[in-house]
Each structure stands twice: as structure tokens, then as C-alpha cells.
């Protein structure tokens, strides 16, 4: 087992494999992606927000397909900023739970359009109405603009759903992956002070939870060669926080756990963000928050965007999310 600080290591059973070799199809693609990245650096091609957006969109389009058809879908707006929201309803004539989904992309990349197949799969697997939020992105809209968008959508979502004729049963989950997981965890903390809105479940998929980037072992051992690299995480954060904000104060990991809803945390063994997910779990347990952990030792960050390469892992994630929402 990889050496971890005792507080984190305590979360892993002695017989648990923390990380393992990626499956062959994923390993082959990673080797190709790493060669391409090396060649780009050798040619002096600079990182840019547009390149990050194009890369995530291209990868997802290549490996996620179109996702299942929905019986009903609609684009609406919600909140004070009239933030775009896409609704996916697999069975529109029956009341069902709502899952607000916040896409990943380091607060810079991703969109509802890019994550369309992922949201379709979640709605179909979970028999839930998925509301995917197209929040604003850095660097054009730095912290806290995207967070403000998502908060406004959550507070005003039910009235928007009622106006769209959606049938819901009053059960509300909030989910997100990567940077979207950071937003979801932050919002769950903020909403503890909201009198009229209650989250029933929080679901975090390989989330970013600590903007301070301390010396987690996973940031070093998984920091290169597994798609998301530690240097790129810093680059994302530097574009997100542009006014010298206190990054610790903005980090969900340091916002306190009391009053949070039951929480699912999904971690990947080869992800640089793995250990902050484990640290978050430890705090949830210490504060008596009901929580569940799914750990995938042979997966990398953003594996949901690589569905055709790792279908079994993706289906396991969707099923775990479904079971947790309906528990």
C-alpha cells in the first residue's frame, strides 16, 4: 500500500488496494496521450483555456458517444443570472427525485453540451430528473461567478421545474465531478444556513476539495502520466482565483462538516485528487455524517469521460450513485 498519513490510511481497510495498474485499453490510450502531450511541449505549444476546453470536449465526444435517449428533455434558465440548465427526464409522467449535476473541467472547461452523454446515463440509470447547470467559467468569469450561478439555480430550481411542468417528489440530490465536485461540496456547506432549501444527498465523483494543494501523496505519485497532472491543477486554480482570495477559506475541506447531508465520495486510485477525497471522508465520519465510499484503484481522473475505454467502471459509478440517491 502507498504510504499515507495515518489519518488518511485509517480510512482504507488493510485488504484494500489503494492503486493498481489501469486496464489494458486505458493503459494503451494513456500511453498515446502522454506521447502527444510530450510532443506538444517539445513544440512549445502553450496551455490555454481554449485548448483545455477543446481537449475535454474532444475526449468526451470520442469516448462517451451520445448516451441514451430521453423521453423528455428541455433547456431552461434559472436563478438571478438566468443560468442555462438542461433537464433530462426518462419518465416524465411519474414524480421522481431531482439530481442537480455540476460538470467537471477545473472551473475552466466543460459544459452541459460536453457532459450531455454523462447526464443522460445518470438520468437513465438513476430514474431521476437530472438538471445540468451551465455555469460560467474562468478565466473570463473567475471565482466566485460560477459558484454564484450554481447557488442561484439551486435556490430557484423548484419554481423553474414547476414552470416547465416537471413532476418531482421533493427529494433533491446535488452531484458533481472534479471541479464540479468542488462546487457541489461548497454549495452543500453554504446551504446549511438556508432556511427553505434542504439537500437530501451529496454525491462527489473524484472531487477537488482543497484549493491549497498541500503535500498529499497522491499529488506526487499520480501527478504525471494519468491525464490530470498536478501542474495543470495549479494552473486551473491560478486562473480561477484572480484577486488573491484565501484559497483555504474557499476550500470545502475546511468549511466544517456539521449539518451536511448524507454524502457519497467516489475516489480513483490513479487520480491526483484521491487523498483529499479520503481526507474529506475522514472528516465526515468524525462528525457523524452518514457517508459512503466507492474506491476504484485502477481508475484515473475523468474516467466517466472515457466510457468506451472503461465501461464496467463507469457503470459501477452510475449504479452506486443510483443506489445512494434512492437509499
UniProtKB/TrEMBL annotation:
<dbReference type="GO" id="GO:0016787">
    <property type="term" value="F:hydrolase activity"/>
</dbReference>
<protein>
    <submittedName>
        <fullName>Acetyl esterase/lipase</fullName>
    </submittedName>
</protein>
<dbReference type="Pfam" id="PF07859">
    <property type="entry name" value="Abhydrolase_3"/>
</dbReference>
<dbReference type="InterPro" id="IPR013094">
    <property type="entry name" value="AB_hydrolase_3"/>
</dbReference>
<keyword id="KW-0378">Hydrolase</keyword>
<feature type="domain" description="Alpha/beta hydrolase fold-3">
    <location>
        <begin position="100"/>
        <end position="304"/>
    </location>
</feature>
<dbReference type="InterPro" id="IPR050300">
    <property type="entry name" value="GDXG_lipolytic_enzyme"/>
</dbReference>
<dbReference type="InterPro" id="IPR029058">
    <property type="entry name" value="AB_hydrolase_fold"/>
</dbReference>
Amino acid at each position: 500500500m502507498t504510504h499515507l498519513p495515518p489519518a488518511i490510511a485509517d480510512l482504507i481497510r488493510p485488504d484494500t488496494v489503494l492503486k493498481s495498474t489501469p486496464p489494458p485499453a486505458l493503459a494503451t490510450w494513456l500511453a498515446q496521450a502522454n506521447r502527444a502531450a510530450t510532443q506538444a511541449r517539445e513544440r512549445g505549444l502553450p496551455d490555454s483555456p481554449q485548448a483545455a476546453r477543446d481537449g475535454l470536449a474532444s475526449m468526451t465526444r470520442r469516448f462517451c458517444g451520445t448516451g441514451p435517449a430521453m423521453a423528455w428533455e428541455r433547456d431552461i434558465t434559472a436563478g438571478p443570472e438566468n443560468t442555462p440548465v438542461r433537464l433530462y427526464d426518462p419518465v416524465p409522467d411519474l414524480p421522481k427525485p431531482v439530481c442537480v449535476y455540476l460538470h467537471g473541467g477545473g472551473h475552466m472547461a466543460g459544459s452541459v453540451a460536453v457532459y450531455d452523454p454523462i447526464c443522460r446515463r445518470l438520468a437513465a440509470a438513476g430514474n431521476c430528473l437530472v438538471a445540468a447547470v451551465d455555469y460560467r467559467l474562468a478565466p473570463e468569469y473567475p471565482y466566485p461567478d460560477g459558484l454564484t450561478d450554481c447557488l442561484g439555480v439551486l435556490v430557484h430550481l423548484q419554481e423553474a421545474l414547476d414552470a416547465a411542468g416537471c413532476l418531482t417528489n421533493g427529494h433533491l440530490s446535488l452531484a458533481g465531478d472534479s471541479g464540479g465536485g468542488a462546487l457541489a461540496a461548497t454549495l452543500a456547506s453554504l446551504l446549511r444556513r438556508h432556511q427553505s432549501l434542504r439537500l437530501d444527498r451529496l454525491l462527489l465523483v473524484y472531487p477537488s476539495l482543497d484549493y491549497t494543494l498541500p503535500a498529499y501523496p497522491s499529488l506526487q505519485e499520480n501527478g504525471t502520466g494519468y491525464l490530470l497532472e498536478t501542474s495543470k491543477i495549479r494552473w486551473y486554480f491560478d486562473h480561477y482565483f484572480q484577486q488573491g482570495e484565501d484559497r483555504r477559506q474557499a476550500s470545502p475541506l475546511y468549511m466544517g462538516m456539521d449539518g451536511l447531508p448524507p454524502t457519497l465520495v467516489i475516489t480513483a486510485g490513479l487520480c491526483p485528487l484521491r487523498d483529499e477525497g479520503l481526507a474529506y471522508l475522514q472528516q465526515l465520519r468524525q462528525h457523524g455524517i452518514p457517508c459512503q465510499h466507492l474506491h476504484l484503484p485502477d481508475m484515473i481522473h475523468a474516467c466517466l469521460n472515457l466510457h468506451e475505454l472503461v465501461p464496467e467502471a463507469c457503470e459501477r459509478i452510475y449504479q452506486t450513485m443510483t443506489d445512494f440517491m434512492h437509499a
